[in-house]
Amino acid sequence: MTDTPLPQRPLAATPATAPLPFLPSPGQRRVLSTAELRARGVSAAEAGARCRDGGPWQRFLPGVYLLHSATPTSEERLHAAVLYASGAGAARAMVTGAAALALYGFAAAAPLTALERIDVLVERTRRLRSSGWVRIVRAAEPPAPREVTGVPVAPAARALADALAQITDPHTVRLLVTEAVRDGHCEPGALVRELNRARLLTRPQVVDAVDTVLAEGRALAESRLYEMVRAESLPEPLWNVDLRLPGGPHLGGVDAYWPEFAVAVELDTRSPRRDEDGAGGGAGPGAEWTEHSRKRETLERLGITVVHLTPRKLRDALEQQAIVVRTALMAAGDRAPAAYVVVLPR
């Protein structure tokens, strides 16, 4: 690999192979845009001369140059893709899709060296086309990027949605979706919202993978709820019960109930799919959310305190959630007696 310094004199006086004053150090990026070269005193004509056959540089992408003649590394390809998509201005561009999953360390994702294309996310209004091995993906409002190994990368949920748009194999889809949630790359709600935005929830392989992950997520949250009660020495509740008024209507199911305290715990594991434009077979927009709110309001009118816990809170702050439940139990004596309800196994 040959590193070549940048010229500070006109091309006519400086042959393309002549030594030049500027030499990037081993730690410096060797992928530069036309604007960056110009700022260093290198004209487009000079850069073009150095990219001719047998020259020391390569024209990597439109407006992007590689300052050596060897095979580019994966890191150089990533930087070049972002430089190309960013353009001459300060437009936001970030790696997404399969390349982003590889940067996040997804075991089920293809390595960077195996990718023929790199997807880059830009604002929808940009006049920019895919070029060479860079594929442009557009967003009405691009998310805030995260920096991974010095490269701006789309959040995991968005990156996975862009990757799944190109994948049809059900096994690969299931592996990626499961890994995204199970390994904490993104929350199920964020992932489902991105999949819904990308209209991928009409694909059977994606729907099956999401349903499996949501079911696994609920089972794991229930396990953590059991752990919280026992590890924090809370009174043992009645688990997974239905509540009804005597001779009256069904009030709804809860995950844990302390009848002597009139306190219920409900895990909020609703599928966000059904709260987004009625997707996923819900009765309509927000149908599941409406039912969820109705149940809570009904129980609280009867004097039953409902504590809502999310899988994320149980995972990240189990002790704090135990304090919330314990506080609700301790406050029972200060409340008016709750209505009598019938408790049935669910």
UniProtKB/TrEMBL annotation:
Residues 1-20 have a biased composition (Low complexity). It comes from the Bacteria. Residues 1-25, 270-294 are annotated as: Disordered. This is Transcriptional regulator, AbiEi antitoxin, Type IV TA system. It comes from Streptomyces lichenis.
